[in-house]
Amino acid sequence: MYILAVNPGSTSTKIAVYEDETPRLVNNIRHSVEELAKYPRVIDQFEFRKNLVLEALKKNGIPFRFDAIVGRGGLLKPIPGGVYEVNDAMLNDISHAMHSHACNLGCVIAADLAALLPGCRAFIADPGVVDELDETARITGSPLMPRITIWHALNQRAIARRYASERNTRYEDLSLIICHLGGGISVGTHLRGRAIDVNNALDGEGPFSPERAGTLPAAQLIDLCYSGRFTKEELKKRISGSAGLAAHLGTTDIPAIVAKIESGDEHAELVLNAMIYQIAKSVGAAAVVLYGKIDAILLTGGMAHSEYITSRLKERVSFLAPVHAYPGEDELGALALNALGALRGELPVQIYR
Predict the structure, then answer these.
(1) Where are the beta strands (DSSP E) in the chain?
(2) 177 near 286, Cβ under 8 Å?
(3) Cα-Cα end-to-end distance for the chain
(4) What is the tens place of the pLDDT at every residue in 201-219?
(5) How far does Cα 284 stand from its chain's mean position?
(6) Example GO molecular function term (predicted)?
């Protein structure tokens, strides 16, 4: 089986070609700010990015023949996890997505390229809107604002399966807390193959992160909204994008921040340690959801490369369960293996409605 995986990000489009379980090409196509500035909306970048994918395949001598093309899932309506075949309902919803994000291009590119090949199928897998919350977890103090989840579902579930495989067991038999530590931070509570509780890592819940503000004092936020100091779009940036470490320290570069700390910058130390503290508090809250019966705590994402961060997190939470780090992410591999499982009939293909 030949599979093309496409993962559009804010400033890059990552692609991988798999022959069964074996990667034959992994390529990161970077986009400059100037290139992307030509397009008023993210969805308008579709043809530009699609053509770059085709050029990259040609440049690397990859024949354009695939059994499936799988894209990173976009910010659709909430759906259970798993593999979905791209259909008209999905493409219609993604054109009116609740949030503008490059990941929305994944299913569009997959569908368009698959249509060029007889018998080729287009999929997405575990998009960021995967919603498997227990009903109790949805309730807030205001009926106007139930909790929603936007999180790193693809990588968290891939890491969970990897951990399970290493221990000759199944993800569906484990109780796990998984922290994706990236530009945004999601802390998922996984019980027997379902993420029964997880924060909205995109726009305002959980620990603050390199780019996001996390949970904020509600009254102060309301006052700021009516202060006249910022436009609506400016305030949104102060929640997601120009928030967190970026707002406090002017950078999201963890090695650079650690270097400042080592040179005696006490403010940098205070802010970074505060972020670690908030992550640990979220892990503690997740432990309560599982009644303290936790097989493991898994740390993943780009910040899991930082020994400064992982060592301090382990100090705070290792009394709850063994802590294991899986630095980085392999979303392309996860996409490809989900598509392969669907083609082989090992994973059910769900219908988006």
Answers:
(1) 2-8, 12-19, 22-30, 68-72, 83-85, 121-125, 175-181, 185-191, 194-198, 296-301, 323-327, 349-351
(2) yes
(3) 28
(4) 988 899 999 999 999 999 9
(5) 21
(6) kinase activity
